[in-house]
Amino acid sequence: MEKYPGNCFAGTRTSDKLYYRKHNPFISANNIRENPERCAKIVNADEIEADLDNGSLPQFSFYTPDMNNDGHDTSLDYAANWLQGFLEPKLARKDFMDGETLVIVTFDENDYILEDNLVWTGLIGSGVQARQSRAA
């Protein structure tokens, strides 16, 4: 979680307003928040690079950008630039895209460009076949 202050922080948001609890589904689960061992597995997003470099990325990782990088408090261009800079280097790593990795990117901000606030989700991985669809 980008800007997550750690220590099982269960407040609504940080004072800089970059981390919001509502984007961290795990801290809302009592069996995680009230269990120090499980809660310690929620970490600040800065740890992803170290985990990749030392081969200790968990089997399941859930990454949430901060309020700027997710485009909520900025723009689609800002978020797209962040995503490109964040994701492209990881996709280029053979140890990250090892044939079993599935990256799911979900984006629900639209700068009110579209009439409806559509949610976009993309899947990236060796087992994914290229296809576009739009649910009604």
TrEMBL record:
It comes from the Eukaryota. InterPro entries: Phosphoesterase. Keywords: Hydrolase. GO terms for molecular function: hydrolase activity, acting on ester bonds. GO terms for biological process: phospholipid catabolic process. This is Phosphoesterase family-domain-containing protein. The lineage of its organism: Eukaryota, Fungi, Fungi incertae sedis, Zoopagomycota, Zoopagomycotina.
